[in-house]
Specification:
Elements lengths: L1 H4 L2 H35 L22 H25 L15 H24 L20 H34 L5
Protein name: LMBRL protein
InterPro entries: LIMR, LMBR1-like_membr_prot
GO molecular function: transmembrane signaling receptor activity
Amino acid sequence: ELRHRASPWQRNLGYPLAMLGLLALTGISVLIVCFHVLELLLDDAAMPRGIQDASLGQVSFSIFGSFGAALQVVLIFYLMLSSVVGFYSSPLFMRLLPKRQDTPLPKIIGNCVSLLVLSSALPVFSRTLGITRFDLLGDFGRFDWLGNFYIIFLYNMGFAALTTLCLVKRVTRAVQEELIRAFGEDR
């Protein structure tokens, strides 16, 4: 219904550009994670342990300089938004989604707790995936399990495989539907 009420510019330019942007961000994050998996296999320094004696501004956290740092920020915001969307679209937590002017206080408290847990896990999540090495001044690298190669390797491989699977499934399903609609076999 919203798609039909949208202007032609929004329908023909806005939605495709948004989809291409999401596709690009997902592809970039998968490529960074795959690169991190290769780093894990080749170098022990790629493990997401804490950086000792590295104060802010003295150590570059990106190999691409300012552009890389900006890309990391954009990817972290993308991961945050996709985590929230994925959380609220899961069948278990779909009932927690607030409704406009009709949300009881326990549901608001549940949403606050859920968003707090998601936002607290984001630095560890982005660091474990190799998207950033920045500690966010919380010493998140001091968790003991961040030194376990097998957990980090399987976590990265699982993220890359499942994200690629979702991406391929979503893109191929849309292409299949358009081909079926174009050939008129949907009737």
